[in-house]
Amino acid sequence: MLRLARWLSRCPLWLLHALGTPVGWLSYALSLTYRRRFAANARLAGVAPELWRPAIAQAGKLLLELPFLWLRPATESILARVTWDGLELVEAAHARGRGIVFLTPHMGSFEVTAQALAARFGASHGPITVLYRPARKRWLRELVDRSRNRPGLIAVPATLAGVRQMLRALRGGHAVGLLPDQVPPEGMGVWAPFFGQRAYTMTLAARLVQQTGATALLIWGERLPRGAGFVVHLCALDEALPADAGAQAECAAVINRAMQKLILLRPQQYLWGYDRYKTPRSAGPAESSD
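Structure (tokenized):
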């Protein structure tokens, strides 16, 4: 598998995305569970089939572009393939000197966003620290660990030690990034509405902002057609997070609403097959919706 990944990393992006389309549809066709979850999640969001069906191919493109992004030589800057929308928000946040918490849903190319920020701001404002969940398979874990730690980019596991490292980065005025729509492990979340259904939602994103005074920015990487590259979109939260550290459910609801708005801007690139509504063993049953 590692040899295949290395071979794919040398292919042009347009070819990887072209191969990704049938891979996405094949995965969709072969798994009844995946198909049902894909359609059910989109239906909960009120997204019409003509808008969520393109996301099937996009999921395959995401998979096939990973070797290119992970194994690309560090000397080949991702910035050559990225254009920006809202870059001034990052520059203003860095000028405040309080750190930045970048929040992105499972949408578009979230690997690109961290790499682009690291390449653009790493030398001038320090590295960005991103949170990830280590892969279970050893060969994949070693590949991911080695590939995600690039110049200006530090990847830390979703553990207490990783959270502490993110806090240190923010207190040093640096940036961190995470996916707040990822289901948190080990009881590290609260139940909050997500597209009208209770979803177990991490509290970490809000706590990082509350404990450090960092600026929260929304970010996602739009995948352009025919391998033309990516657009990194940035915007501010349009609702302030509650200052009360005890209002975790309210904070989670604010962030979930922000994620919903981003997703509905381009539902064709959201990972509708992600198991967003699963219940971690330690979380207890979901509360009833009102």
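The mean pLDDT is 90. Strands lie at 82-85, 100-103, 128-132, 153-157, 175-178, 189-194, 197-202, 215-223, 230-236.
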